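Obj: model holo form, ligand = pyridoxal-5'-phosphate.
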Amino acid sequence: MQAIADRLARLRERVAVAEQAAGRPAGSVRVLLATKTQPAELIAATLALPEAAGMLRGENRVQELVAKGPALAGLGVPTHLIGPLQSNKINAALRWVDGIESIAGLDLAHAVASRLEPARLLEVMIQVNVSGEPTKSGVATDEAVQLALAVAELPGLAVTGFMTIGANTPDQSVVRSGYAQLAAIRDQALGAGLSTATELSMGMSGDLEAAIAEGATIVRVGTAVFGPRGA
Ligand SMILES: *Cc1c(COP(=O)(O)O)cnc(C)c1O
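Output (holo C-alpha cells):
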C-alpha cells in the first residue's frame, strides 16, 4: 500500500501545482479514482488512506459496480458510473451509484428517470464527444446544451455538469482545445439558466494538467494511482 500512498501524494501535488498554475483556488479540483479492473479489497484499502480523503470513485462497467458494490458501499465514498449504460442494466447500476456521468442521449435519461425510486434525486452529467472520434461515446458538441436542458426537465435527475474523454493523441494542444470546448458548453448551459450544471469532469492520468488549465472540477485518475492495468 505504500506505493499507492506515495502515488496518491504525488497526484495531489500535481493537482495542486496545476490549480496554482491556472490561478485557481487550492481544492477547486476533486479527484475521482477510476477503479476499473481493481479488486474491491485494494480499492477499499486505497480509499481508507489519508491521502485519498475527499476523493470520489468511478467505475466503467455496471458489472464491476455490482460485483464490488457490497464491499464498498459502506465507505461513504461517492461513486459515479463513468462508462456506457445499457437500458437493461439501469436497475443494477442505480443500486450502486450516487451519480452517472455518462448520459449521452435523451432516451437513456428518460429510462433512468423512470426507474428511480420516488423522491430519489440522482446527479447526472452529460457526456460529450469533444474529439468527434467515432469510437468515443457522448453527444455531439452542438447538441450538448440542448440535451442538458431536456434532461434537467426530467423528474428525479439533477444535471450537475458535463463529462468528456479527451482526444486520444499525444498533441496536448488538441487535447486542451477539446477541454476548452467542454468548458464553453458548460458556460452556455449556465447562461441558458441551468444553474446546477457547474461541474466539468475531464482529464485523466496523462493529461490532467491540460484539463485543470481549462477548468476541470473533477479529474478521473486510474493508472497514476494504481499503476498500469493488466491486459
Ligand atoms: C479508465 C478511465 C479513466 C482513467 O484513466 P487513466 O488513464 O487510467 O488515468 C478516466 N475516465 C474514464 C472514463 C476511464 O474509463
